[in-house]
Backbone:
């Protein structure tokens, strides 16, 4: 993985583990190890939540469900702490195929907010904001069988995943269509929404996508602040680099 000298701190913002995501093939510890070896400064674990493609027993009590759901993140963080990789918590929320990357809350917050399981998309935005978090619509123009229709919520998000490496990286084996990203970038520009990039990886074959900064981040809250405050950063799909406005470099 080739890093930009002026933006050397690269973070994977969209990563799954097999402890919580049914479609993933590698553990949190394995994903952390692979990310460190690839040259990432840090990763954000974003496993599929209660209405997504998760592998947690739906019959569990809420607190036990959240505890099980967070195992992938916790295992990734434990390994990250050992090898010098920042590992932050997030999750991917699903509303009938429309998905959102949620950043800035943690396990304890989720346990204390069981209402999250049944909230609407506007209510999700309100509650996450009240907690100081951030809502990013993931791959808004992806077309797949599990996504019945394209639905956009510019009033209920903080930003848009403009670049999803699964769509355009040469290493990707699924969802391959760069046009999905082209449309997402245009949509974000139209509504003047910040853009992020991530790889949406489910195993240790990493694509190299993510968001790169001039400085090292201190926390998931710091990541949210950096995106929302207008801080300078770059986007990548692992093959090419882009300004935070989506323009290729």
Residues:
């Amino acid at each position: 993985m080739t890093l930009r000298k002026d933006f050397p701190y690269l973070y994977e913002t969209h990563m799954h583990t097999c402890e919580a995501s049914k479609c993933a093939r590698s553990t949190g510890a394995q994903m952390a190890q692979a990310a460190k070896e690839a040259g990432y400064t840090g990763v954000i674990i974003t496993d599929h939540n209660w209405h997504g493609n998760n592998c947690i027993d739906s019959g569990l009590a809420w607190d036990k469900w959240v505890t099980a759901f967070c195992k992938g993140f916790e295992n990734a963080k434990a390994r990250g702490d050992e090898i010098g990789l920042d590992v932050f918590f997030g999750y991917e929320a699903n509303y009938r195929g429309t998905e959102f990357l949620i950043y800035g809350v943690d396990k304890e917050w989720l346990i204390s907010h069981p209402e999250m399981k049944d909230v609407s998309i506007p209510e999700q935005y309100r509650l996450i904001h009240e907690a100081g978090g951030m809502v990013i619509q993931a791959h808004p123009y992806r077309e797949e069988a599990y996504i019945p229709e394209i639905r956009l919520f510019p009033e209920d998000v903080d930003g848009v995943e403009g670049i999803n490496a699964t769509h355009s990286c040469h290493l990707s084996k699924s969802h391959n269509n760069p046009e999905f990203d082209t449309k997402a970038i245009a949509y974000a520009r139209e509504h003047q929404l910040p853009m992020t990039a991530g790889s949406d990886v489910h195993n240790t074959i990493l694509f190299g996508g993510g968001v790169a900064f001039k400085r090292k981040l201190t926390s998931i809250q710091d990541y949210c602040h950096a995106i929302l405050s207008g801080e300078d950063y770059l986007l990548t799909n692992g093959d090419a680099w882009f300004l935070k406005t989506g323009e290729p470099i």
Observations:
- The first strand starts at residue 9 and ends at 15.
